[in-house]
Amino acid sequence: MKHSLLRFGSDTELARAAASDWIEAINQRVAAGRRFSVGLSGGRIPLALFREAVVQSTRKSVPWQAVDFFWVDERCVPTTDDQSNFKFAEELLLKPLQIPAHNIFRLRGEIPQADAVTLANSQLRENVPAGVGGLPEVDLVLLGMGEDGHSASLFPGAGPEVVDCTEPFLAVQSSPKPPPERITMSYAQIAAAKDAWVLIAGPGKEAALADVLSDSPTLPLGRMIQSRRATRVLLA
Ligand code: 6PG
Predict the structure, then answer these.
(1) What is the 191 CA–ligand 1 centroid distance (Å)?
(2) Residues 6+ apart with CB under 8 A from 114
(3) Is the full-model pTM beyond 0.85?
(4) Atom 17 in ligand 1: which residue has the minimum CA distance?
(5) Which atom of ligand 1 is nearest to the CA of 205?
(6) In a structure prediction context, what are the per-residue pLDDT tens digits for the chain, which is 236 residues long?
(7) From CA 104, how far away is CA 100, in angstroms rounded?
(8) What angle do CA 70, 230, 94 make, to 5 degrees?
(9) Which atom of ligand 1 is nearest to the CA of 199?
(10) How far is the centre of ligand 1, averaged over its atoms, from the C-alpha of 152 (Å)?
(11) In whole angstroms, what is the distance from residue 29 CA to residue 37 CA?
(12) Is the CB of 220 under 6 A from ligand 1?
């Protein structure tokens, strides 16, 4: 089995458990003298996770200054736009936790896509040590899944230039979920992450979920799960 499945009664319960496990993972790694790198996603459920992480941080000490923040994907909009993944992470997580600016490696949705991808590739390579396959080994990627089985900004029906990309990040020009232009971690980069947790909530996802958790999936999240040794799926 390439995934473990945890079911929760509500989005809040899911967010609470994910935040608690994330904090535990940070504490363990930092206690071992290392920094912790995380890749954040967009979508709805991360907002609940961010709020929970902040609440839990008021109750126990968390070494957030040793956490480096990257993004799994970003929409090509300015950071003032409500579609910006960074905007809500900043508002709900980074500012409340007073994360130092030098720990934040956002994807630059406001500059030409090719430049943003080049910058993102070098930032990740410079700040996260390479793992077995030569790509940076991010400690944890926090993924979501859309109704069509997409994850990050990797959508069904993409061509080989997307599926076979060997760089950490790539540009997406025609995302079916608005906005059409995005920057996303590649399949290879997600495969290279040490841990991957998929936070799934919201209606209309049953059919995609059955596909991606099957032994022969056809949808993007299924491809990711098959490419990894282990993936944790949290479902509300
Ligand atoms: C994005 C995403 C995307 C998201 C899923 C799930 O920026 O659009 O990173 O992959 O995680 O679409 O989003 P919901 O949780 O809102 O359904």
Answers:
(1) 18
(2) 171
(3) yes
(4) 146
(5) 17
(6) 799 999 999 999 999 999 999 999 999 999 999 999 999 999 999 999 999 999 999 999 999 999 999 999 999 999 999 999 999 999 999 999 999 999 999 999 999 999 999 999 999 999 999 998 899 999 999 999 999 999 999 999 999 999 999 999 999 999 999 999 999 999 999 999 999 999 999 999 999 999 999 999 999 999 999 999 999 999 99
(7) 7
(8) 20
(9) 15
(10) 7
(11) 10
(12) no
**Any residues with CB less than 8 A from the CB of 176 and at least 6 apart, and which?**
148, 150, 155
Distance CA 32, CA 25 (A): 11
**What's the angle, vertex CA 62, arms to CA 56 and CA 66, rounded to 5?**
140
Distance CA 121, CA 107 (A): 10
Number of the ligand 1 atom closest to the C-alpha atom of 200: 15
